[in-house]
Amino acid sequence: MGEYDTLIQAVAASGEDMFWLGPAETAQIERLQKLLDVKLPTAFQEFLRSYGGGGVVGCEISGIENNDATIARGGSVLWGTEQCRQRFGLPRHLVVIYFHEDEICWCLDTSRVHDDECPVVSYDVFKQRVDRCLSSSFREFFIQYLRLRTN
Fold first, then answer.
1. How many alpha carbons lie under 13 Å from residue 47 in its C-beta half-sphere?
2. Per residue in 105-124, is it b (16+ CB within 10 Å) or e — as a string?
3. Beta strands in the chain (DSSP E)
4. 26, 44, 55, 117: least surrounded by Cβ within 10 Å?
5. In CATH, what number is assigned to the domain containing residue 13?
6. Which pLDDT score is estimated for 36?
7. How far apart are the C-alpha atoms of 126 and 88, rounded to whole Å?
8. 124: which strand partners?
């Protein structure tokens, strides 16, 4: 998490407001995986263990709130994924990590695991399909997310 921490400090130094949901225990991450019936990639599990979710205010990455995987409200992985499954036909192998204004939906594609990582994709809620790959892994996605906010 050292590289993340350095970038997070740079984002904070640039004046961006940030907040984090707080670390999630391994048991809660495992509980989330059972609730969603998926295996989360290692980098995302590490992110949840370290930060729980959050980021730059207004464009936070979904996570586990208050170290409780069952909390299903805005900002939680469980809520975003369940909402998109019910309302927008989100396939079961996609896990929402960012959902904004019922339009923007970014997901982990757990059907395309390689070396215990999977791509981050954009899901078009209107056409109900993946429309593009954003990053080859959550790790790459999160680094990009932070670097964009330090420039």
1. 26
2. bbbbbbeeeeeebbbbbebe
3. 18-20, 54-56, 94-100, 104-109, 120-124, 129-135
4. 26
5. 3.40.1580.10
6. 96
7. 7
8. 129
Counting every residue written for the chain, the total comes to 151
Q: Domain count for the chain, please give it.
A: 1
Range of 11's domain? 2-148
* Cα–Cα distance, 19 to 117 (Å, whole number): 25
Give, in order, the Cα–Cα distances in Å from 90 to each of 52, 127, 151.
23, 11, 33
6-55: per-residue pLDDT in tens? 888 888 888 888 989 999 999 999 999 999 999 999 999 999 999 999 99
What's the burial of 142, exposed, middle or buried (CB within 10 Å: 0-12/13-18/19+)? buried
For residues 11 and 150, the answer to whether their CB atoms sit within 8 Å is yes
Angle at 77 between CA 75 and CA 78, to 5 degrees: 110
Longest dimension (CA), the chain: 40
Which residues, other chains included, contact 51 with Cβ-Cβ below 8 Å and sequence gap of 6+? Answer: 20, 21, 22, 23, 63
Confirm whether pTM is higher than 0.90.
Answer: yes
